[in-house]
Every structure is written in structure tokens, then in C-alpha cells.
Specification:
There is one protein chain. The chain has about 200 residues and is an alpha/beta fold. It has 2 domains: about 10-150, 3-Layer(aba) Sandwich (Protocatechuate 4,5-dioxygenase, Chain B); about 155-195, no CATH class. The chain is built from 7 helices and 10 strands. The strands form 3 sheets. The protein has a 6-stranded mixed β-sheet, with helices on both faces. A two-stranded parallel sheet has the order 3-10. The protein has a two-stranded antiparallel sheet with strand order 5-6. A hairpin with a 2-residue loop joins strand 5 and strand 6. The longest helix is centred in the C-terminal third of the chain and has 16 residues, at about 160-175.
């Protein structure tokens, strides 16, 4: 794993979900910031945008663990139960079955953290307030990490991408949601939901 520049230990990180060859070093840098607290983090709430299945809300899984080449990662059933009564939370394993926005983070988490449980949520068509309500319930203390899975620009030259991604990062840091356009960050709007016939009620 790449060595990260020393930085304050984050409560939440945004890390990419593109193929490892494209974004692995960036993800490794983000996850490297967790090394000082690897034994403290016991719960990881991982939100990734839906790419394969269209649905409304946030999809939880009924699985007890996710299997990886580095071992099984247990699912935090207690945490999922804490949000299961919210109308925007649905149980939809089909949304998880081939969702790379969740899957690509698992090796990094397994490598950098000690014993932890995972709360994986695939985000479909959901309002900001709905996602915030789920996060508020799951926020927890210093033993809980929030991971937001998002790729930034895919379509620009390297120099243009650096400039655009810097502007997107600034918009995130200053909470200027209006400055982030759908093409600037995967998950800003879920493109699989453009065709409403694909949405699962």
C-alpha cells in the first residue's frame, strides 16, 4: 500500500471505485490515513452509488458477510437493524451482487483495519435528506468510519481532470453542492435511474 502523507485521522473519507489500475494508488493514499487508528475502528459505513440496478432509496444486504480473497468481512447486522425502519432503506441483495462501487473498497479495508464490521449501502435514487438521515443514525463515535465511494472526472485529459477534480474537492469541502455537476462525481446523480422503467419501487 502506498505511503500516505501524514494527515489528521479522518472521520470520513471519499475514495474512488474505478479499477485498481486506474485509481488504486489514490484509494491507497486515502486508506493509508487510517493506519494510526486501525485497531480503533470497529464499524465501517460504506456508501456506493448504484451502477447495475435501478431502485429508490438505499439498499442494505441480507448477507451475514462479504467474502473476499483476504477473508470474510462480517456485516454489521445490528447497525443495519438501526436504520431498517426508515422508509428509504430497502433490502435488495440484487443491488449488491455486482456492485463494484462497494466491492473495490473491501481489499483496502481488510488490509488496513483490524477487526471491524461493515455496513454496506448501495445508494439508488435518494434525496440528500434521506441519505443524511441514514448517516445521522449510523454516525457513531470514533470507532465508526464513514466511506463514500465516488469517482471524479472520467472523461478529461490528465491536466484538465486535475483542475476539475480540484474544483470538485473545493465544492465538497465548502458544502457547495450546486457546484458539483453529474459528470464531476459518480453518485452526484445516479445515471442508471434516467430510465424510470428500470427503477424498483
Amino acid at each position: 500500500m502506498a505511503k500516505a502523507t501524514p494527515a489528521p485521522t479522518p472521520k470520513a473519507i471519499i475514495a474512488p471505485h474505478a479499477g485498481f489500475i486506474y485509481s488504486g494508488s489514490t484509494a491507497a493514499t486515502a486508506y493509508g490515513t487510517l493506519a494510526p487508528v486501525r485497531s480503533r475502528i470497529r464499524r465501517v459505513v460504506l456508501l456506493g452509488p448504484a451502477h447495475r440496478v435501478g431502485f429508490r432509496g438505499l439498499a442494505a444486504t441480507g448477507a451475514d458477510f462479504f467474502r473476499t480473497p483476504l477473508g470474510d468481512i462480517p456485516i454489521d447486522r445490528e447497525a443495519i437493524a438501526a436504520v431498517a425502519d426508515l422508509p428509504q432503506v430497502v433490502f435488495l441483495d440484487a443491488a449488491h451482487a455486482e456492485e463494484h462501487s462497494i466491492e473495490v473498497h473491501l481489499p483496502f479495508l481488510a488490509e488496513v483495519l483490524d477487526d471491524f464490521r461493515l455496513v454496506p449501502l448501495v445508494v439508488g435514487e435518494a434525496r440528500t435528506e434521506e441519505v443524511a438521515q441514514v448517516l445521522e443514525r449510523l454516525w457513531g463515535g470514533p470507532d465508526t468510519l464513514i466511506v463514500i465511494s465516488s469517482d471524479l472526472s472520467h472523461y478529461l485529459s490528465y491536466d484538465e481532470a486535475r483542475k476539475q477534480d480540484s474544483a470538485t474537492a473545493h465544492a465538497i469541502e465548502t458544502l457547495d453542492v450546486g457546484a458539483i455537476h453529474p459528470q464531476d462525481a459518480c453518485g452526484r446523480y445516479c445515471y442508471v435511474l434516467r430510465n424510470s422503467r428500470d427503477i424498483v419501487p
